[in-house]
User: What shape does this take?
Amino acid sequence: MPKRSSRAVPKKADLDLTPPEEIRARRIRWLAFLSVLAICTLGAGIYFGAPPVGREIKAWQSRRLAREAFALIDQQKWSEANAKTRDAVLLRPTEPEAWRAAGRLASRISQWPTALDWWKKVDEAGRLTLEDRRDYIAAALTASEVTLAAKQVQVLMAQSAPEAIDLMWAGQLASRQNDPVLAIDYAERVLADERAKAYEIASAATLVLSLTSPYSQRYAEAWKRIEDVARDPKNPASLGALVLLANEQALPPMSAIGRNTSLSIESTPAPSQTSAAPPSVAGGVDAGPMLQHPTPATQSGDTVTLNLAPISPSSPSGRAMSLTEVANALENHPDARPYHKLLAFEVRVRQDPALTDQYVADAVERFGNGDDETLAALGGWLNKIGRPAKTLEVLPQAHAVQRQDLFLLYINALAALQRWSEVKDLLMSEHSVVDPMLQHMYLAVAQAHLGAATGAINEWQRALEVADTPEKALALAKYAEQSSVNDIADAAYSITIKIVPKNRGAYDGRLRLAMQAGHTSQAQSIAAKIAQLWPDDAEARNQDAYLQLLLGASDDAAKAAERDAQLLVAKEPRNWQARATLGLACLRLGRNKEALAAIREPRVTGVEPPGPLAVRAAILAANGYEDGARNDARIVNAKPLLPEERTLIAPLLVERKE
Assistant: This one.
């Protein structure tokens, strides 16, 4: 057996002599070191990793709330959807899905300025869906942002097979771009599309009504489509069609006197769809009419109408569904609310005014003991048909002061009865439940009627001070403009622009006020700002160029205006404002014959804006057509013109010496 090394023995002995306590202490120190190291590593991980993790958790929660909001919006549960949307935005203000929910909700309850702001943010984030783009178009067209709407329509139409609703939006856009031929083409494609839904068919038919003559075949066919929809209570669009027919928002088809294939411009009221208003989104003033389905909103005001086809002797004409039938259908419709049943009474009143008292008594007996929604509809109807005293009977003051909508109906009834002292006292009392801005606004009107001019001015100023949201400022501006208090209206529009620097409606309002006041230089400055903010808007650039020409633009500016106007006229041949710019530019450059060519077509019908007609008269005179120029000048002289436009026709109004 080999001998062990004598040197190995002492080492083993040394190990054996290490106390157990020392070994445990070493282990504890080692474990403590590792623990401290792990804690430091974990702390560093938490320090550097917690914010991103927290943000992701908040983002996930925000998206979850947004999805819940979308479901509630589809169910038209507006209050619950508003709460979910608000929480989603507050939880993570930078979450695009929360923006989408806010935009969808604002669109569905017709808070268009708010909706437009949200859709712009979603667009910048690159998160727009096809449905979002349709809502974006509705908001943009309502705000007169035609260029923004055009970009979204372009995306929708770039699909391999655009849906009927997308064709409908394209038609609405074409109508706003003064291209009725293209608009009607899109509308007829919708009507011929088997995939088109009820709302889309109704919208296409109303678009055709707004763009064609009541004497045309197309008009008669579109009217029949509306009546067919109205007759079918199971059709989801039938109630809207009945409202259109009941309000007589379009003329029934007319029998043709003879065959007529000429183009004609006429003034035809555009139809619209009315529905109940849901609760407003927090922060707004009041919600407008609710969009129960994403169908295009029809335009308001006068629109260009076009007689495109000859009318054959056998073409359908006249009203196939009588107003009595419309009233009966409204009253018996399964989805009819108090508003619709009261509208049926209104139709009967128009049909037989001698029985108005009886119809009013029947309506009061039927709806006078209803809930607040019913009372609001009844009070609004009574005020509308000129029975404000009856409103005060069915809506006692003690009840009216409990809700803003009922309170305002009560105030309107007092105002209709010229009881302005009571209006003032009620608004100034502790019972007033209206928003402070509305309170001061109505008080201003009451003070004015009571002859307290200083008090009225003070109330308008107070209303300005509390108009702290774009919705309130715009509401104040529009009400002041309707009341002809233009300085307050301009100030309110300016407040809107200060809060939302790219609010097109506010800029348009300021431009309109400056034009009405004859402040051409101020109007040109505003028009230039609009053209700067919306460089793709050809109409805005044309307006700026026209005003510059009136003020005496340089030759270089006149040449630039001429080039832009030529492009716009080529695109929109019936655009008289563009033709006026082109003609005036040529006139300023001394090219009278080219100016004459610019305004020879289309034929004047009498509904053109007066400014372009003043330019036309000046161009006719410059080319030697003095008799026609003088006749046009006399006609247009009675209409509102800018001072520089009056200067153009001033020589033509001087009596010639024999």
The radius of gyration is 34 Å.
